[in-house]
Design brief:
Radius of gyration: 17 Å
Strand content: 15-25%
Pfam family, one: Isochorismatase
CATH class: Alpha Beta
Number of helices: 7
Protein name: Isochorismatase family protein
Largest sheet: 7 strands, parallel
Keywords: Hydrolase
InterPro entries: Isochorismatase-like_dom, Isochorismatase-like_hydrls, Isochorismatase-like_sf
Organism: Dankookia rubra
CATH architecture: 3-Layer(aba) Sandwich
Number of domains: 1
CATH topology: Rossmann fold
Length: 224
Amino acid sequence: MQESPLTARQLWAALLAAPARRRFGFGRRAALVNVDLQRAYTDTAAFPATAYECDPRQAEHVNRLAALCRGRGFPVVWTYVAYDAGGADCGVWGTRSDTPDSLQNIGEGSPRAALDPRLDVRPADVILRKRMASAFFETSLRSLLTFRGVDTVVVTGGSTSGCVRATAVEGLSCGFRVVVPVECVADRHEGPHFASLYDMAVKYADVLPVEEALAGLGAMPAAR
């Protein structure tokens, strides 16, 4: 009789128990890229149909990372998704549904597009509007990081299986070392969350506890 397949959580646990994989590691200079930590996806009380939470301290952890990066002169980037009125700029992605909670109804300036008020966003941070999954796709992120001499990208946000994973894959494809702190990413369902953590850890990123990410960033030389 064929054995039952492992659940995503069991796969993740098996990966953690296995011998450590060779890491990409932290390079010379980092950037923190916080993906879509906006109310549509973080405010579970106001937007229960679209928001999600894994670690209730996610915003706190992200703020710690941001403070450390600023202190070392590393860029801190926040992305958010928003579309023009009626979703004319959604492209094919916006054709799958047209409901009050669908993509084309996240308008620029709407409460759903606003960054979570628990986040410590500073005037010197970079805020980028994006329209597709990856934070790199048709934004200025890659050129910004190249100009700042960045070779390591720490990715937080959501969803783990969607925009975080897409950003990690494209970041690696662009030649960046990618780090994903576990407590700083979230998804609506346990299965895709742990499956995507597993997938990124095996292929595309160093998936680390947030304390290890903080230690790694703290050991990097400050930017001049």
